[in-house]
Structure of L,D-TPase catalytic domain-containing protein:
Amino acid sequence: MPNAFRDEQQRFPRVRAAYERTWPGWRLLLTAHGVDPKQPEIFLRAFKVGRQLEVWARTRATATPFVLIRTFYIAGTSGTLGPKRREGDGQVPEGFYQLDRFNPTSAYHLSLGLNYPNASDLYQSDIQHPGGDIFIHGSNVTVGCLPITDAGMEELYVLAVEARAAGQDTIGVHIFPFPLTSENLTARRNSAHVVFWQNLRAGYLFFEQTHQLPHLTTDARGAYSVR
């Protein structure tokens, strides 16, 4: 069906080519998982350990749980475990984000921007220079971003365009160091970041247990809470 956002994106040759290569497969995959390909709602979840970017989906405007439909390998990484706190630190952020930009002419083929720094980051990061321009993008190299190769990015970009065209204005992206289980946190209990990771855990567990997205707020100290 015609849609202004989709039509605008498809003016760009890379996006048109990506649609030709990937959208037929997405339609089949979504349908196989019980998701209406005309009304996809998506959610992204990434883990640094294991270098995975998960794509979850459901039919928009339903209360059904999200289902895992695709996992991309994060083809390059930088920094270490722990959040991003200043410009130039090379860190991939950790926390709860949203896509805020579609870039069909990226230097890294295609890219989707994250709203880093978010409210929590602004409280806890370098006040003057928190950094920015964090993307999920093509290629296999990065400084602080999440590259999933050009081919992988074509797939993800097209699905994100379709979700936006279907009316999903907010696409969540949760980035964790690793699955925030009690066992994993206990194994890293001496890390300088353990208090921060404990704060992320409520949001992680809410989705893990329900496959629904948590409603998140940020307090005056930059801590997340789920309600």
Observations:
- Residues 183 and 189 are 10 Å apart (CA to CA).
- Strands lie at 40-47, 52-59, 67-73, 95-103, 111-114, 135-137, 146-147, 172-176, 216-218, 224-226.
